[in-house]
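Hi L.,

You mentioned the student needs an example of a multi-chain input paired with its predicted structure. This one should do, with 723 residues in total across all chains.
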Amino acid sequence: MENTKAPNYRWHAIDSLQDRASQSKLWGLGVFISMTIAFALSSILLVNAMRYTETNLLMIEKQPLLISILANGILVSLYLALLASISVSRELDKGTLETLLYGPVDELTYILGGFIAHVKVFSLTLLGALIWSNLCVWLLNLSFRLDILGLLLASLFMAAELIAFGLFSAIWGGKTRNALINFILIVLFLGGVQIADFIVSGLVQIQTSTISDPLIVIRNVLASLNSTIRWISPFSQVQRAMQALINQQTGEFILNMGLMLLECALLLVGAILLLKKKGVRGVA
Amino acid sequence: MFKHKTHFCSLVLIILLLSLIIPVSVTAQPTGDLDFVYGTNHYNGATYSSALVPPTVDTFYLLADKTSIVAAKFTQVYYWPITNEYKADWDSANIIIDGSLEIVKGNKVIQTVDLSEYVIQFDGNNKIDTTVLYLDSDAKAARENYETLQAKYRDDLSAYYNLLNEYTAIFQAALAELQRGNITEDQLPQAPPALADLSLFSTELLYGFPVNLPVGEYEIRLRLPDESIQPDSQKHLVVFDSLGEGIGYSISGEERWNLPENTSSINEVIYSLKDGTYFIQPVYQKLYNERYYTRMNNPQDTTTRTDRTLWVPFRSAEDVNLSVTGQEGTTELDLQPFYVHQILGSKLGYNIIPFDPESMSQPSFTAFKIKLENSLVYSIKLKDKNGEILIGSAREVRIINTNRTWLVYLVSAFPLIIGMVAVFMRRKNVRDIKVVGAG
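Structure written out for the whole complex:
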């Protein structure tokens, strides 16, 4: 009898799964629409910075593409993570995963296949982002810096973590509706705290505020919350990694990249173990 | 009985309502008896500042390896509702407490500092370079010297006014002679030379504990002469240092000269507009932890964060040249004084013109003037009087193409075009397969 669980066969199965899933994404219009929306939003942010310079006569920035690349990475990776979550939970809903697991596919193969497929698609979108960034640099006469590559790498790590989370939430939620609710609520919470902290921190300036400013309490609560969830939030980690890269803080950059990688691995292992524990029928 | 109770309740209600309507006057409320506080006269990286450490604050901050003064005092602390801060009413009580300041690290007293006399002096024309803290006998000598100079200045001033009065009388007489035609204008008497101001400033002879510690965290407490510990005197002390030094620039466009942008880091790029004229003012600066530095100057601050840094400019750079390298070559610019001439009339506006000492009282600012017209990319560096490039002074200046921003939107549409091509090709392939299969 042929051992379908042997590493080479397993790798072949992973490769086949990821190839099939990634091809289906790349031949569809969804990824390209999400990229276009992400680039359009990034363009709005960039052009806004240019308009500010026209009004202010000056702009002093380390990397004017930072916000654009961050926004682009978050939008596309959220879309792909959502797709990953939906594809797994749909297979669970329809029972096709049960059929698949009777064949030469086990839990590890299935999860890794889905994960690699979506990370691969994201990597290709990053290639688009790199071309877009360089075109912007050339068109607007911005300073070309190699740290753009680091920013894109940080985006890739964030996307990997989000995709792993999408897969985990699909197994955890079972049904498509539950999986999506779990995914969206957690992402909204993590992203919301991050955005609120960013806005409120900007509002409370040291030079203008006094200790009677009521926003300080809100800012302190958000800052405490943010300092706690920074250890689990991919948005916080990618933002800190990017900021560290631009400020040349190597330790902080490695720490946040490491955190994203570690959490990605934990979520993948968690998804595999959860699928094994619950079983295909138990999950559905 | 019930009726009386109802009336009483109504009365209470009316009083409560009135208390809401009548405005509450804002006054400084003393907290009671005298309070123990620490006052600091601390080195802030450039000169000396003072701060109050009220009983509500348990941690304060000082710079490392520089002598700062910590004074233990009794005063009346009051709460000031306008800024939500505790303040000291020094006029009502300002009592120095005798004893010794114990500095503790890891449950071990590492230093005992005795009360010292001190004086801080500086020249008003150049505060940063001339500020000196004198201790003990030096402090007494410095204060005596200051008082001697002050007395001499008073005498000189009196003599000067006498001379001026004499001159006025002689001048009036000479003027009468001039009108009669007995003398010419050249023969009019000359005014006595103006007396130079006494620019030395000095504090009184003050008392405090001079503290000079390396970077670290400590506990401090006041040991009284009877060997007991002064209640409320135990505080946490954080001693910190700057995280770096560099050159910062304050840059303003000609049309917005009083709204400058600051660049502190060498990694920052200055994006500007073509044909723009800019004024660049260089400053020496130090990098500090935002919370440590801000709380050193205001221990009651609650707005700062430890995960942020703060560049603090401490001196404008003088005796320097700006080297500007563009596509057409390198030019060296000198610092120049400028005068902002307001346009008269109801219309707002001004002209920035070179300062002319003969017709203008004093320059509005001193800066490098740069016009960006022949290149798209410039590199600027600051050189000292020996021609050496100052570390941390290099910046890149780029002229942005604001007329091409619409092309950025166009570029964003490329993925959609590629996607549509991909879908079209796939559909075509699928159609081909069907045709082949059918055949």
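You could point out the following to them. Residues 28-241 of chain B form one domain. Chain B is about 25% helix and 40% strand.

Best wishes,
N.
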